[in-house]
Write a structure and sequence with these properties.
- The chain has 340 residues and is an alpha/beta fold.
- It has a domain of 231 residues: Alpha-Beta Complex (Spore Coat Polysaccharide Biosynthesis Protein SpsA, Chain A), CATH 3.90.550.
- The strands form four sheets. A five-stranded mixed sheet has the order 3-2-1-4-11, with helices on both faces. Strands 5-12-10 form a three-stranded mixed sheet. A two-stranded antiparallel sheet has the order 6-7.
- The radius of gyration is 24 Å and the shape is globular.
- The relative contact order is 0.12.
Length: 340
């Protein structure tokens, strides 16, 4: 009888441990964002309803291929007012699909290049009170136009926004619409400014390369491979992509074609665009040396970023960090290049 009692006790203990293990795995999956079944509590259901209403108001094919888009009636009036107040037609942005297509504006010869980088990247995007649709269109453009084996993660850093949509609603969208991708959202508890917010994102990055992007841009076809390919050739090369324009009123994607400029600076310490100085480089398809960078969009080897001292954490706000980083790269034996 004593032996049977011991056996039963052991069986009960094993069953208890198994059940405890299942519970632990369940909650780990739930809070990691990789659990496919969303339990719709009343609060989550409210967020889901808001997202569905948001999606239903979008107009299919609006702005496809980067073409200029226009609204009519009340939406046009509201969009014009938004343009005057915040310098962006936010109503048009909300009506435009988040996954709109863009033309492939690369030089024809560039399309013949073959890139096979093995490095992966962490894309870091900082925002403060940005429009929700603008942020999500940026994220979707990166996902849809990046080879997924090269895209390790997207890190969104909210610099203590006051817009409520950028809190629960954005996280719910990530949990439900972007659950197949590694998208992390960090909310800073107090306003830190662009530089310190970027550093918070950089500290969490695990990719071989870090690509910093503004929260209001759209990646085009083949944007990532040349950046990673060049860094794989030369780890101390810091790469800047050609920056085209999205019109504030019509959200049209416009480009200067094959012509482009590189970063310069005035003696008063202000960034400016200048013509390519090397005559041979104007005709060559490949990286072109650039004295400085605009600072909003660039790719850098993650370890090299820390080796050169990262950003100066004492900098407040925005402006000046791009020139400081540019000079430091050149002084520390690196190369700053624009990739064509």
């Amino acid at each position: 009888m004593k032996i049977k009692f011991v056996k039963r006790t052991r069986i009960k203990l094993i069953l208890l441990l198994v059940i405890l293990g299942i519970v632990i795995i369940y909650f780990r999956l739930l809070f990691s964002g990789n659990f496919n079944t969303i339990k719709y509590t009343p609060d989550i259901q409210i967020l889901e309803n808001k997202i569905r209403e948001y999606e239903e108001r979008m107009i299919p094919n609006l702005g496809d291929n980067g073409e200029p888009a226009h609204l009519t009636g009340e939406d046009k009036e509201k969009g014009d007012e938004a343009l005057r107040n915040v310098a962006l037609n936010t109503v048009l942005s909300d009506r435009m699909p988040l996954t709109r297509s863009l033309k492939d504006c690369r030089n024809k010869k560039c399309k013949e290049f073959t890139y096979k980088p093995t490095l992966n990247t962490s894309v870091i995007i900082i925002f403060y009170n940005e429009i929700l649709s603008v942020i999500l269109r940026t994220v979707w453009s990166v996902i849809l136009r990046s080879p997924l084996h090269l895209l390790k993660e997207i890190i969104l850093v909210d610099d203590c926004s006051t817009n409520e949509d950028l809190k629960g609603l954005l996280q719910h969208y990530i949990n439900t619409r972007l659950s197949n991708y590694d998208v992390k959202l960090i909310h800073l508890e107090h306003r830190m400014g662009l530089i310190r917010a970027r550093l918070q994102g950089a500290r969490l990055a695990t990719g071989n390369v870090m690509v910093f992007l503004d929260a209001h841009c759209e990646a085009t076809e083949g944007w990532l491979e040349p950046l990673l390919g060049r860094i794989e050739q030369e780890r101390t090369a810091v790469l800047v992509p050609i920056i085209d324009v999205i019109e504030a009123n019509t959200l049209a994607y416009s480009t200067n074609g094959d012509s482009f400029e590189v970063g310069g600076f005035s003696w008063s310490g202000h960034f400016t665009w200048i013509k390519v100085q090397d005559e041979d480089a104007k005709e060559r398809l490949g990286p072109v040396r650039s004295p400085t960078m605009a600072g909003g969009l660039f790719a850098i080897d993650r370890e090299y970023f820390w080796e050169v001292g990262s950003y100066d954490e004492q900098m407040d706000g925005w402006g000046g960090e791009n020139l400081e980083m540019s000079f430091r790269i050149w002084q520390c034996g690196g190369r700053l290049e624009t990739v064509t």
